Amino acid sequence: MARYARVKGSIALITLTNPPVNALSAAVRRGIMESVSRALKDEQVKAVVFCGENEKFCGGADIKEFSGSMSGPPLVPLIHSIEAGEKPMVAAIEGVALGGGLELALGCHYRVANTKACLGLPEVTLGLLPAAGGTQRLPRLIGIPAALELITTGRHVSAQEALQLGIVDQVAQGSAVQAAMELALSVIGQPLNPRRLSLRAPVWAPDVDGVCDAALAQVKQRSRGAMAPVACVQAVRAAAMLPYSKGMERERQLMDTLFRSGQAQAMQYAFFAQRNAGKWSLPNGSQWNNTRARDVQRAGVIGLGTMGRGIAVSLVKAGISVVAIETDAKQLESGKKAVTAMLQRDAQRRGVSPPLHLLTFTLSFHQLRDVDLVIEAVFEDMNLKKRVFSDLCKVLRANSLICTNTSGLNVDELAAVTDRQPLVVGMHFFAPAHVMKLLEVVYGARSSPEAVATAMALGKRIEKVCVAVGNCSGFVGNRMLKLYLDQSVYMLEEGATPEQVDQALEEFGFAMGIFKVSDLSGLDVGWRVRKASGLIGPDVDPVKPSRWRLGRRYCPLPDMLCQQGRFGQKTGRGWYLYDSPGSKEAKSDPEIQTFLEDYRRKYGIIPRRITSQEVIERCAFALANEGFRILEDRIAASPEDIDVIYLFGYGWPRHRGGPMFYASQVGLSVVLEKLEHYHRIHPDVPSLEPSRLLRRLVAEGSPPIQQWKSHIKNLRSHL
Ligand SMILES: C/C=C(\C)C(=O)SCCNC(=O)CCNC(=O)[C@H](O)C(C)(C)COP(=O)(O)OP(=O)(O)OC[C@H]1O[C@@H](n2cnc3c(N)ncnc32)[C@H](O)[C@@H]1OP(=O)(O)O
To answer: Where is the 3-hydroxyacyl-CoA dehydrogenase NAD binding domain (predicted)?
Structure first.
């Protein structure tokens, strides 16, 4: 899987051939080894150029191989043999040079990239470190601070930035392969030792220790328990302190630990889960590769609140014309200002001009007559949305799609008021919509495969991670979130504080605990939903609200907070205290402690100590248990889809894979046992009762997560 050719008389051109990204599989490594040996032996060959098939240099090691037993020539000695070769070796980088691909290029004596190439060492995002010499060669090439930044973040850099950093020697406007061949011919006969990065001395710099310490503190703070970024800093520190061979030894030791870790498994699982989510399928058999998406050139956005603004920005940035509608002139003006400012800021950052010409702001629905698709983002109110949907049908072309950004209302009920049920789907964005990566595409009972394909393709075009889900209250993400929130507030009743719960979740890896997140989102949002769903009504005792509603345990604490006007950050008070409305730093509020104590006293609850372990078990296992029910109900097509939703929409730590992967990693029988235990203690919380699918999987020997899909099919056929 490496092609060998002699070109221009004296150049051996070695082409990596393993589409789509020319990953360094065992066969590719073998091919490179044989080709290098042939080039070194061939007396006609005076220089060697490496490139990749289909204008993609190399996407790195073949990640699929990591889960099996590795075979074939190892990468480290292979790259060493390239570097040690007595003929100039030049990497011609087109498309991507990532991970092992860049490490291969660093083993070459020269590197040429074309303008569109991107380079990086993203191993840290897979729970690993660049262990084919990357942590030792890159610092020797570009210095410790720049290498630390690239290796600990896994950030991709453009060819231009790579040139500025000194990673590549040349950027070619046209073909990198042509430019590399010219460079190779021009350097024949020049000494190679100065070009061999491994021969360079350790990279000493003033206060190297201080720089590494600062990087360590930064990654520990940023990555919340992830091991790989810490190991990356340790390996780069070795490049600063030790000769190359010792540094390589350190790199290998650190990699050995990471490679076997559950964190690496979780992150590699997340990599493939994200890509598999794009391969959607519907219960009727329609799927991503048998359904055509429609082209969307013009879209409408109804409502310019926070969500509508973010959606409009995302569409325009992808080159789609947008007609943005509001019902009130003042709101239209403030929406216009906000959208324009967001686009201007973004354009300024990227050094381009803002695509404002793609935007039309109007109060008139008639301007929507020739759009291909509309995304409704009005207030979360079924009647209001129904009115908007029927008004849309009066002006839209008969074949225009109508999408709703509802976060959990019934898509079928909305579709029913239209004249085009097959053309109605949900597009559930997450706030802020121009930043958050997740998009749940919700298909209703009558949504056509073409409508789903169009929404999925549009989501991909605006750079979202899209997951197709079925229609139920809250869809996947918010349906699960409800149970996680329930557990959190029950624990406050039982004796915990918001700080304790949040600390346990943050130590687990969440960027923010659930109470901080609730304050950020606004506590009034859930309050409104609970009122609309009949959980709060005039029959509720205002002095001692019932803890039992609709036949199950209910915690009135969040409602009581809202009654006090504590809506979270926006009012300066929620579960925490803020310096002023809108400020972000959450501080403990003694009033909340007193409020919780009074509450427990009023209801005769004797507080008990709740450990971090209990917090994690009750939150994570409640999430996973609902995830199993969602799989039984066919609302999500696979556990991977659920995990992608939690990773990209709800801040689940990537090094824990997602709630379903976490359950599989902890062990399904352990999860079952714990749920049974908690359900025994809390029989008034039906959601803690282990799901049928979980029981079934345990009974069938807890198969690996990749096999759950077939067990789910069997479970259904037994129902
Ligand atoms: C030690 C460790 C070492 C030495 C390493 O090198 S670890 C690997 C480091 N490399 C990476 O992390 C790069 C991973 N890949 C990507 O970031 C992207 O795939 C890409 C930027 C290279 C291309 O992006 P895009 O064009 O959007 O395509 P997809 O992401 O959808 O990928 C297409 C298919 O290729 C599969 N793929 C990609 N990279 C690898 C890889 N390194 N090993 C195995 N397979 C890879 C990916 O899963 C897609 O497969 P399908 O879904 O189409 O089946």
So the answer is: 299-471
Tens digit of pLDDT for each residue in 655-679? 999 999 999 999 999 999 999 999 9
Q: Over the stretch 595-652, which tens digit does the pLDDT of each residue have?
A: 999 999 999 999 999 999 999 999 999 999 999 999 999 999 999 999 999 999 999 9
Q: Tell me the CA–centroid distance for residue 61 and ligand 1, in Å.
A: 9
Sheet containing 96-98: order of strands: 96-98, 118-120, 157-158
Q: Ligand 1 site: residues with CB under 6 angstroms?
A: 20-21, 23, 59-64, 96, 98-100, 122-123, 126, 128, 131-132, 272, 275
Q: How far is the CA of 21 from the centre of ligand 1 (A)?
A: 6
> Nearest CA to 75 among 91, 88, 62?
62
Look at residue 301 and give its three-state secondary structure. Answer: strand
The active-site residue out of 53, 83, 94, 123 is 123
Pocket test for ligand 1, best of 16, 21, 76, 463 (most atoms within 8 A of CB): 21
Atom of ligand 1 minimally distant from the CA of 154: 12
Catalytic residue chosen out of the listed positions 53, 103, 440, 626: 103
State phi, psi for 302 to the nearest 5 degrees. Answer: -105, 115
The CA 24 to ligand 1 mean position distance, Å, reads 11
User: How many Å separate Cα 391 from the centre of its chain?
Assistant: 36
For 283-315, how does the pLDDT look when each residue is reduced to its tens digit (9 = 90+)?
A: 899 999 999 999 999 999 999 999 999 999 999
| Pair of tokens at residue 73 | 């020539």
Residue 438 pLDDT greater than 90, yes or no: yes
- Expressed in angstroms and rounded, the spacing between residue 675 Cα and the centre of ligand 1 is 37
Res 719 pLDDT > 90: no
Measured CA angle at 227 (ends 222, 229), to 5 deg: 55
Whether the ipTM is more than 0.85: the answer is yes
Walk me through the domains of the chain, giving residue ranges and CATH numbers: 2-260 (3.90.226.10), 298-474 (3.40.50.720), 496-603 (1.10.1040.10), 612-716 (1.10.1040.10)
Establish whether 614 is a catalytic residue: no
Convert the pLDDT of each residue in 210-233 to its tens digit: 999 999 999 999 988 999 999 999
Q: Which atom of ligand 1 is nearest to the CA of 126?
A: 12
Answer yes or no: is pLDDT of 529 > 80. Answer: yes
- Nearest CA residue ID for atom 15, ligand 1: 59
| Residue of 22, 56, 63 to mutate, ligand 1, most atoms within 8 A of C-beta | 63
Known catalytic residue: 506?
A: no
What average pLDDT does this structure show over 576-591?
Answer: 96
- DSSP readout, 227-276? HHHHHHHHHHHHHHHS-HHHHHHHHHHHHHHHHTSHHHHHHHHHHHHHHH
**pLDDT at residue number 532:** 85
pLDDT at position 717 is 65
| Ligand 1 geometric centre to CA of 1 (Å) | 17
Q: pLDDT class for 202, splitting at 50, 70, 90?
A: confident
- Helices 659-666, 262-277: axis angle to 10 degrees equals 140
Report the chain's C-alpha Rg in angstroms: 28
